[in-house]
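Re: zinc ion structure - here you go.
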Amino acid sequence: MKEVKSPKKPLIYYALLAVLILLVLNALIVPIFDKQQVKEVDYGKFLTMVEDGQVNEVEIKETQISFTAKGDEKTTYETGRVEDSELVDRLYNADVKFTQDIPKENSPLLNFFLFWILPILIFIIIGQFIFRSMQKKMGGGNAMKFGKSKAKVYVEAESGKRFSDVAGQDEAKAALTEIVDFLHSPDKYKEMGAKLPKGALLVGPPGTGKTLLARAVAGEAKVPFFSISGSEFVEMFVGMGAARVRDLFKQAQEKAPCIVFIDEIDAIGKKRDNGMQSNDEREQTLNQLLTEMDGFDSSKGVVILAATNRPEILDKALLRPGRLDRRIPAELPDIRGREEILKVHSKGLKVEEDVNFHTIARSTAGASGADIANIANEAAIRAVKFDRKKVNQSDYMEAVETIIAGYQRTNAVISTREKLIISYHEIGHALVAAKQKHSAPVEKITIIPRTSGALGYTMQVDEEEKVLLSKEELFNKLTTLSGGRAAEEVIFQSITTGASNDIEQITKIARSMVTRYGMNDTFGMMALETQSNPYLGGDTSLTASAEFAAKVDVEVNKLVKAAYDKAENILTEHIDKLHELAKFLLEEETITGEEFMKILTSKEIKTFES
Ligand code: ADP
Ligand code: MG
Ligand code: ZN
């Protein structure tokens, strides 16, 4: 057995140790002190001394006689005890004090301690040692609590969030209002004979406020809110996940009406038929969840909400009517939604009156609610950094860029020649964009490097938000993205690694045009790729045959080359402007869209004059 070194031994160990030491001392050392100054004499001598009246006191013991002599109190004499019937008479006659020793017996209390208490204590101590070492071996000391564990449930009497804390998401809020109404007055629905949905599934990209919406429902309905994350069900020990599910539903039914919220349900709700990689524990947990969802009586007022950003991988059984049959989408906010979210998160901040939230919202296309909350906070931090009383527009705009591109790397060392190349690269993008129809106006161009690795960037902001993109617009985007590299080649006749991010984007867009948007004449409306998780970056998988796959590459390549050629043509045609703008950017490092357009148009007038 492994010895356990416990840093803090309980007091009882010390007490026992002390008792043991005392006992040993008592048994060994005390008698030694007793026997000091003992003189052995024979029985004859003893008798003579008695008769001579030299003996003071006699003690008759079981096997010997000890006595002291008159005038010599320090020495004890000893002699063997002989069968002597007249001894008592002799001593009496000699007028000697004598006593008979009673055979020594330990006190009953000590006996009790030695024979009963001590062994039990020893057993307890040994037992404790074994118990502890077992616990250590089985990890973390949890082993012994096995099976007793209650689902860790986060109960809030009121979640503290209201629908007013959630900006935008009007459709989701409308759908959830119905659930709130049900929790308020379940009888109304019962009377009508209507069955309410047992559960609803919130789906959407990360950071769109799914968790926030669920908590707002609890806040509005003023009911307890049980929140657990899907991953918390997946335990080290087989069977624990299922036990937790059972526990959760038991508690929920006791507290009804209430809301059970399972966040990131995909952690347990994955499709069960993934062949080789089957996971017993997860399946058991999922089965238990399905059973519990069927088992409880929804008329009591237990509503299950779940959230995921990967609805396509959920088990079909979870989504069938009677379980999580309602799907509530939480999409990325549109410009109005972003403006509202920005306002919600700026409520607690001290903001300058002239801050234009609409402008800020306009330049954050594609940002999620979480991103925007982050932008508001970043703006406030910046205002503090510059010792301002209130947050102003520039704080917000800089925060937007920080969230999009990372922090400014003010101390990055970049040579002048490299800066020149970067300037031409960025102006290349901007110029190509400006010279095409259907492309978003340039808002800002900068060559200050960012922590994200970007060495500079051109920010384009659409006048209005688009839900549809035409083939022309997509092709223009490809051309704009090609503008950077094209400028490098036109001016320096050499190319750099600076375009790697552009290349990635170009390929992605061109590929989608061919394989998913049906924008290629060779294939027409044929789906050659499917998107597997639209809410998380949208990885695609090829569904075409090998023969078509090769053709796809050819078509994508054609498209990319065409876009590049177009960009190159635009730049050679306007090479004067390219030079002038690039030099201006190199000096200024950051220029606005207005400054850019001013130079671009003034230049045009000049060329007409000459
Ligand atoms: P998820 O969809 O990933 O669960 P969360 O609900 O956790 O996202 O949102 C993260 C944070 O983003 C919230 O705490 C909130 O501050 C902010 N947020 C997201 N969407 C909104 C919204 N519509 N209104 C206000 N704040 C939002
Ligand atoms: Mg969440
Ligand atoms: Zn570029």
